[in-house]
Design brief:
InterPro entries: CT_C_D (IPR003833), Cyclophilin-like_dom_sf (IPR029000), PxpB (IPR010016). Residues 1-196 form the Carboxyltransferase domain. With 217 residues, the protein is α+β, with helices and mostly antiparallel strands. It is 25% helix and 29% strand.
């Protein structure tokens, strides 16, 4: 990956064993970094290892990774649990009716299916703080919309495929917008800039418009 990174591929398809191996390598490198390691970025089937080319080269980094591959621990740190408030008011969930029509469900059933889903943070990507959450209820799995919507506000709770995420910036999206959360995802803390860690568990609970406005203050 250019002169300053290596991409470590574990597999071609996502499986629990692959996810566990990637997280174990992430933990191993973070807990015992080699000289020149700058960042480890987990992905769905691999991870990117970013290094300072003035302190090490590709061959040295490859040797460090190879050594750790035989020492990976499958012991997970206990994942944190997050319960995120969402307002499904029509002003915040402009696609709720369309999702209901596409899935053959009522709007209330769509909301119930979303709040009963148990999500896991799989990766970060695309934009700062964009945590991709796997575990969306099968009944809500839709392809992306044919065309994106512009100006979608930060805090929007959106779904596509089998995933969900909470937007952190005002920007276009082709995902289906179910609601909006007052919970900030960007923390402002340099040591832990995002609310979630990869592997954390996330669920959503419904709040009213009044509770949403109160939570934003």
């Amino acid at each position: 990956m250019g002169g300053h990174a290596l991409l470590v591929d574990f597999a071609e398809q996502v499986t629990p064993a692959v996810t566990e191996a990637i997280r174990a390598m992430d933990r191993a490198l973070t807990a015992d970094p080699f000289a020149g390691l700058q960042e480890v970025v987990p992905g769905l089937v691999g991870l990117m290892v970013v290094f300072d080319p003035q302190l090490c080269d590709h061959d040295q980094v490859r040797a460090q990774i190879t050594k750790r591959l035989g020492q990976l621990s499958s012991a997970f740190d206990r994942p944190r649990q997050h319960k995120i408030p969402v307002c499904y008011d029509s002003a915040f969930g402009p696609d709720l009716v369309d999702v209901a029509q596409q899935t053959g469900l009522s709007v209330e059933t769509v909301i119930a299916a979303h709040t009963s889903s148990r999500f896991e943070v799989t990766i970060y990507g695309f934009a700062p703080g964009y945590a991709y959450l796997s575990g969306l209820d099968q009944s809500l799995r839709l392809d992306r919309k044919p065309s994106p919507k512009r100006g979608v506000p930060a805090g929007s709770v959106v779904i596509a495929g089998g995933q969900c995420l909470i937007t952190t910036l005002t920007m276009p999206t082709g995902w289906w917008i179910l609601g909006q959360s007052p919970q900030p995802i960007l923390t402002g803390d340099g040591a832990r800039p995002f609310l979630f860690d990869v592997g954390d568990k996330v669920s959503f609970h419904r709040i009213s418009r009044a509770q949403f406005e109160k939570g934003r203050r």
